[in-house]
UniProtKB/TrEMBL annotation:
<dbReference type="InterPro" id="IPR020904">
    <property type="entry name" value="Sc_DH/Rdtase_CS"/>
</dbReference>
<dbReference type="GO" id="GO:0016491">
    <property type="term" value="F:oxidoreductase activity"/>
</dbReference>
<comment type="similarity">
    <text>Belongs to the short-chain dehydrogenases/reductases (SDR) family.</text>
</comment>
<dbReference type="Pfam" id="PF13561">
    <property type="entry name" value="adh_short_C2"/>
</dbReference>
<dbReference type="InterPro" id="IPR036291">
    <property type="entry name" value="NAD(P)-bd_dom_sf"/>
</dbReference>
<keyword id="KW-0560">Oxidoreductase</keyword>
<protein>
    <submittedName>
        <fullName>3-ketoacyl-ACP reductase</fullName>
    </submittedName>
</protein>
<dbReference type="InterPro" id="IPR002347">
    <property type="entry name" value="SDR_fam"/>
</dbReference>
C-alpha cells in the first residue's frame, strides 16, 4: 500500500470523478477507479498521462447492477487491494415533469445514486472489519438534498437519502474505526468555466462558481487519516449560496 492508503472512486470518468482520481494520485494514494465500461478506456488513457510512478487500477462496473458491485470488490480482493477509503461519487439526474417520470427512470437514479453507495459502503466495511483496519467513506451528496429546482424529484430524493445514509453509517461503523462523511457540492462547473457570466459568479458570496478541484480538496481533507475526529458530517461546498437570502427587486 502506497502513500496514505488505497482509495476506490466511483463515477471516476466524469468531471468531478476524474479530478478526484488525479488529486489522489498526486497526493500519493493508490487509486482504484470505476465507471461504465465504455468510459473506462478514456479514463485509463488520461491517468497514464501522469506517468507510471504510482499504482492505479481501472475497473468497469455498472452500479445499477448489484452483481457488478460484488464482482468489482472480488476483483480488488483478487489483486490484493484492501480499500481503506471509499468515495461514492457516481450519480446522475433526470430532469422531467413529475407526471412524465417513469418508475424505471426513478429507479435508475435511486439505484445508482443511493443504493450503489450503500452497497459499496457495505462491501468496504466488511473487508475493513475482517482486516481489523480503520478507514474512511465519503459520499458525494448535493445541496439539492436541501433545496430544489422543478422537475428533479428523483435526484433530490437520492441526495437526501445520501445525507441520511451518511450519518446512519457513521453511527454504525464508528466502533470499527470507519469514519463516514458527505460533501454537498453546489454549482460546480465541469464543462466550460470560461463561458460563465459575471452574474453567475457574483451571485455566490465567495465571488465565483465552483470547480471540481474544490470538491477534490474537500475529499482530501475528509479522508486524511489525521482528521479522525470528523465523522457523520455533511460538508457544504457551494460558495455560500445556501446561506444567501435572495429577494426580488
Amino acid at each position: 500500500m502506497t502513500g496514505k492508503g488505497t482509495v476506490l472512486i466511483t463515477g471516476a470518468a466524469g468531471g468531478i470523478g476524474s479530478v478526484l482520481v488525479e488529486a489522489y494520485i498526486q497526493a500519493g494514494w493508490r487509486v482504484a477507479a470505476t465507471d461504465l465500461e465504455d468510459l473506462c478506456a478514456g479514463l485509463e488513457q488520461k491517468i497514464m498521462r501522469h506517468g507510471q510512478a504510482f499504482e492505479f487500477m481501472v475497473l468497469p462496473a455498472d452500479l445499477q447492477r448489484p452483481e457488478d458491485i460484488e464482482e468489482l470488490f472480488l476483483e480488488l480482493d483478487k489483486q490484493g487491494w484492501l480499500v481503506n477509503t471509499l468515495i461514492n461519487n457516481a450519480g446522475f439526474g433526470i430532469t422531467k415533469p413529475l407526471t412524465d417520470l417513469t418508475v424505471a427512470e426513478w429507479d435508475s437514479v435511486l439505484n445508482v445514486n443511493l443504493r450503489a453507495a450503500f452497497l459499496c459502503a457495505k462491501e468496504t466495511a466488511a473487508r475493513l472489519r475482517r482486516a481489523g483496519a480503520s478507514g474512511s467513506i465519503v459520499n458525494i451528496s448535493s445541496t439539492r438534498a436541501i433545496m430544489s429546482e422543478p422537475d428533479t424529484e428523483a435526484y433530490a430524493a437520492s441526495k437526501g437519502g445520501i445525507s441520511a445514509l451518511t450519518h446512519a453509517l457513521a453511527a454504525s461503523l464508528g466502533q470499527d474505526g470507519i469514519r463516514v462523511n458527505s460533501i454537498s457540492p453546489g454549482w460546480i462547473e465541469i464543462e466550460d468555466y470560461e463561458a460563465l457570466r459575471e452574474v453567475d459568479h457574483s451571485q455566490h458570496p465567495a465571488g465565483r462558481v465552483g470547480r471540481p478541484a474544490d470538491i477534490a480538496r474537500a475529499c482530501l481533507y475528509l479522508t486524511d487519516p489525521g482528521n479522525d475526529f470528523v465523522t457523520g458530517t455533511d460538508l457544504i461546498v457551494d460558495g455560500g449560496m445556501t446561506r444567501k437570502m435572495i429577494y426580488e427587486t
